[in-house]
Amino acid sequence: MAVPISAPLPEPRSVRPAEPVPAPLSADAIVTAPKVLLHDHLDGGLRPATLIDLAERIGYRSLPSGDARGLASWFAESAYSGSLERYLETFTHTLAVMQIRESLVRVASECAQDLAADGVVYAEVRFAPELHTEQDLTLDEVVQAVLDGFAAGSLAAAEGGHQIRVRALLTAMRHAARSREIAELSIAFRDRGVAGFDIAGAEAGFPPTRHLDAFEYLRRESAHFTIHAGEGFGLPSIWEAIQWCGADRLGHGVRIVDDIEVGRDGRAHLGRLAEYVRDKRIPLEMAPTSNVQTGAAQSIAEHPIGLLAELKFRVTVNTDNRLMSGCSMTSEMTALSEAFGYGWDTLQWFTVNAMKSAFLPFDERLEIIEQVIKPGYDRLRSSAVAGGTSVASVTAAGTT
Description:
By secondary structure, the protein is of the alpha/beta class. It is 45% helix and 14% strand. The protein has one domain (2-386): TIM Barrel (Alpha-Beta Barrel). Strands 2-3-4-5-6-7-10-11 form an 8-stranded parallel β-sheet, with helices on both faces. The protein has a 3-stranded antiparallel β-sheet with strand order 1-9-8. The longest helix has 25 residues, at 362-386.
């Protein structure tokens, strides 16, 4: 299939006609925009100061730095190694301090507050319960502690003037053998704040089909799940996640571009898998900074998100691991605006894409889109017009 990537498609009802954008949007403006986050790891988002404090409380002496700024720099340097495996090693330190209820509640509460302060109005934050049982917490106790933390943090954010709803995704590790157990746990808690299920970990050598029993169980239970695929490994991982396992969303999915060829004539030729992913509107949970750090993309400017957005894939913007990547939703959107010239229309498009793809009942998703997201971006556009700035976007904001 050949698609002229420069040819605009009809604008969706939720996005205004596009116009040129003279300059990138500022971070000060973007931080006020309503945002939706689908791919964020709880153990990858600790505040450096909290990590140091919790380590002191439990006598953990292996942190590479006792200074918050120095610790943040160490995580960033490790994350830019270009290796997903090396990137995952940084979690040794965060997981070490997240083994008791008090710590889990605190980390989850601060997570909700930090996201709310960043303008996030809805978030699905994932964690692997099996990685938090070294001090004899049960899986149920781990999940309840995190949910209690999200509730406390959301309440504190509301008291500070920031409304947010945070739900959990329970992750199973793809190199382990507890996926069915974690899937059952997600069902047990799905009416208490757990939105769905996920698998994570190094992709190479650990295909998602190793966990078919868990995915078949979830489908029988009419449950939602996402699968990390197409980041550290290529198209076979994506194909298995969708066609064998039945994933609702793809965690990252960057390597879907391996099935797209752009010719000298500027036309994009989509392979069968890429065409299927786009036609079925399968959401791509992309995290640009993290993808650059793990070597899945060379730079933000060269990130496949630009091409995939222009080709109208269901692209969403995410943080992945805020501590390791030194990022936020605001910094991710700011970087994309700088690299691709995105304005408010495209940022709204990314946000609506994410809200449509959330593991939340349809009427609740629609309410957030209509009552929170659209009015929020309308205010930003109006403010920009009042300030004499062009408020529209590039043609990436082209379909739902």
